[in-house]
């Protein structure tokens, strides 16, 4: 699912990272081949996320929501993985909600 991620802070203020994947010719038990997966960090946890990103990437300046979205997209969606981002969140004890569902 590399380069197929959508990173945004929605109207409620939650950070949502979502992506869709297909299993090609494979189907699950119900005949579905496409799945959506992602994670959500709730709005009241965005300050700790910003602090975490500042520690991880001290040379970048994160002063806006768009800058936060962009650094997550560049560093974790394009260059690394969402799993790595989850590990950083867990290490910093920042709660998040992961999900996987049929698209």
What are the defining features of this structure?
single chain, 103 residues, alpha+beta
What topology emerges from the helices and strands here?
Layout: E1 5-9, E2 15-22, E3 34-41, H1 46-56, H2 65-79, H3 82-91, E4 97-102
Biggest beta-sheet profile: 4 strands, antiparallel
What is the tally of helical segments?
A: 3
Q: Provide the gyration radius in Å.
A: 15 Å
Number of beta-strand segments = 4
Distance between the termini: 14 Å
Query: Percentage of helical residues?
Result: 25-40%
Description:
The protein has 103 residues and is an alpha+beta fold. The protein has three helices and four strands, in the order E-E-E-H-H-H-E. The protein has helices at 46-56, 65-79, 82-91; strands at residues 5-9, 15-22, 34-41, 97-102. A four-stranded antiparallel β-sheet has the order 1-2-3-4. A hairpin with a 5-residue loop joins strand 1 (5-9) and strand 2.
Task: Please sum up the structure shown.
With 103 residues, this protein is of the alpha+beta class. It has helices spanning 46-56, 65-79, 82-91; strands spanning 5-9, 15-22, 34-41, 97-102. The protein has a four-stranded antiparallel beta sheet with strand order 1-2-3-4.
């Amino acid at each position: 699912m590399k380069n197929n991620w959508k990173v945004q802070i929605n109207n409620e203020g939650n950070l949502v990272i979502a992506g869709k994947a297909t299993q090609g010719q494979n189907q699950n038990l119900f005949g579905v081949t496409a799945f959506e997966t992602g994670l959500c960090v709730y709005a009241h946890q965005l300050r700790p996320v910003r602090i975490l990103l500042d520690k991880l990437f001290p040379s970048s300046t994160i002063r806006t929501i768009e800058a936060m979205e962009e650094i997550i997209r560049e560093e974790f969606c394009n260059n690394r993985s969402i799993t790595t981002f989850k590990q950083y969140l867990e290490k910093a004890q920042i709660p998040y909600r992961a999900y996987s569902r049929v698209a």
